[in-house]
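Our collaborator T.R. sent over the components below with a one-line note: 'Predict the complex.' Nothing else. No constraints on interfaces, no templates requested, no preferences about which chain binds where. So this is a plain run: every listed entity goes in together, and whatever single assembly comes back becomes the starting point for the next discussion.
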Amino acid sequence: MKFKNLLTADNWAVAKQKLGLPMTTDMRGLIAKARERGYDGLSFKTNHGQEYIALPGHTSEPIPHPPEQQQPSQTPSPTETPTLSAPSKKPGLLSRLLGNAHGKIDTNVPVEPTTPQKQFESPLHSDAVKDFLSGKAKHTLHQGTNSSSKVGDDTLLSAIQKETNRDALPQYVNDATMNHLAKRGWRVGYRGVTDPKHAEQFAKGRIYNGSGLYGNGTYITSAGGKFGHSGAKREASTYGKEIMTLALSPKAKIIETGELTKLKTKFLKELDQNLRNRKISLNDYDRMVEVCANDGRFAALHNFDAIDVPHRGYMVVLNRAMVALQHEEGKS
Amino acid sequence: MTTKLTPAEFSREAGRVIHSPYWTTRPKTDDVEVVIAFRQQREREMATLKAALNTAASYDDLPPAAKAIYNKAKAAMPKGG
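Returned assembly:
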């Protein structure tokens, strides 16, 4: 393999320095930045000697690395079904570095998203909400009665997440790292899905926000909650045999569902008052009530990363960028 | 019918019912106080239903008042899909 523009460094920490990246940047961030700067390859020393990484998009040569490490430059459109190649049987450099192949702990999983996240001063400051109120953007806020309905995605919530970078891809970690994160205060949970494609979509595709009693978002059963560890996994399996193990960063802003209800009551009373005082039109009032009718959207517009439902043992995740993900195929 | 649903299916359906257009589809009027009173009434109903759904594993577990609200909300949902 020949490289036209190879970035060479003594080790990957130096590579990060050369690109002006903070030390907390993970391998994915390093690769993304190198690609952005126009490099077609990375080279540095590891315990295995001098290693080379070809950067997709800058070479027509075969890329000898597992597909699970290659970040798609774009998420699929809503009409596309995200597909993944089968992982390589031979662990590549990235797998070895991140420990995915040998169960090595990755101690570099960032507790905060690598991309900055917009914070709303108020829900009315959201561009997604403004576009919805003005009619510039259309969203279906209600789902059909049929549980297999295809009209299941909350596209307004997705737009809010996209606006704030909360739709960024999760960190992909191995079993050992997941255990490590649990000891470091990450909140571990499980999600059962019926189709492996749904797990793949969460890992690498367009974000999908399903419905639930406690608001739209991504539901997980909390391992530290009422079900306990194995009970949470069992509970998740009642929703689908494909089990995903997730962990939410200790930096995530989480609100309990009861507190969220209180916050919503207060917000809606203020909205009532704004209507009385003509600070908001009747049309905007109606639409804001619709927007806030869903706890997931309401929480996201108040900058929360998840809703905790302790009495049910669930969490509703609203910020995928705050998640570490371990996928266990076919296990329950 | 909701009585034949498994707990997981019922949970999914309840998640949709609780976000039915029932809660926000109000009578046509420009009277601000009527509009606000409608919203507050629906908020109370939703609180009643949600409290019942918190502990119900099936439709049959719901008390009569919550069942009535559930049925109205479900009837207002988009059909099919």
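Summary for T.R.: Chain B touches chain A through 34 residues (CB under 8 Å).
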